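Running log. JK asked me to keep both predictions on one page so they can be read side by side. First protein, sequence followed by its tokens:
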Amino acid sequence: MSFQGTLANGRTLERGSSTPTVRLADHLTQVELTWVGKKIEHWVRFGLPAHDRILDRHRHILFFRPGTVFALVRNEFGAAISRLDIVATVGRDQAYQTLPCVHPGGDILLRSEGWPKVERVLQAIDAIERLKIDPEAVSSDYWRHVHNRLTAGQEPRGYSIDQHRAFLLRQRAAP
């Protein structure tokens, strides 16, 4: 039996018999999500997983291929903690940073803590999507820029279509 779920970005994800099997050789990054309404809410704001495994009614694991960028939101209401991390998954022999819920870890492009900053990052993601750009395809440098500006208490500059076009051209020109 196949189950179709929807990610936060509106993309659909097939689960069940139609989902490809995950092999250890794929070296996928695992993101364990927990959802107990108004207590612990972990979710992915953007990023397309290669596979999904449901553990029980409150937990499931998303598997991402190397080179995938995703945004992980973690809200823990009892401790009043809100965090958002934008992470690029890494390959087998690449260095990585550790992060709760993410195994083994990844290249953390942006880390935001506290609801006002998390909300500001969510607004930046929304603005990028209004430009019809997939946030997963945005320049890593832009996510680092947003992180640095918010850390310094400053407003990040917006992402533009011209900036994105230049990023894509740089990628094509790279050896």
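And the second, directly underneath as requested:
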Amino acid sequence: MDLVNRISGHFTDSTQVKLKAMEVLATPLSEAAGLMAACLKNEGKILACGNGGSAGDAQHFSAELLNRFEMERPPLAAVALTTDSSTLTSIANDYSYEEVFSKQVVGLGQPGDVLLAISTSGNSPNVLKAMQAAHDRSMTVVALTGKSGGAMSGNLRDSDINLCVPSNSTARIQEVHLVCLHCICDAIDCILLGVE
């Protein structure tokens, strides 16, 4: 096996998927950033959730907002629902794993807040329940998915935003998710700081 060629192929594939995603996602990404910036301006917060690598993305995103991205600015209100092991395990133990995010959304979410729901397949049951809880709390959902968008795409409202990466490869979808999150962070900073 020629690992150099295999690795080069991954870079090529990743680049091609990112370019295709740029064509499809640039406009909805700008809309998602505008929605989140408006939420933050109105003293709302962004709640983020996902499983596995998507949990890491939720944490990465909230860290970029709470601390800083590339520009100096005050902290922004963002919470990753994936980080409190006592909360996660108590909900999973007392109820079910499907409710680990939705119960937190019910407890923390307020009308006008935004839920960033991340799932490469769009079919994670606990993320779907979090979306329903967000809708019940009069929150808006930004869904970050891939493949066909799965069940999440079918559960979005007109006011929600669907960011579906045009790929069937989990690795490529995750790579584009990171670029999307960085684009949103940068755009939020530009909006809030008045950068042209």
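Observation for JK regarding the second prediction: The first helix runs from residue 3 to 41.
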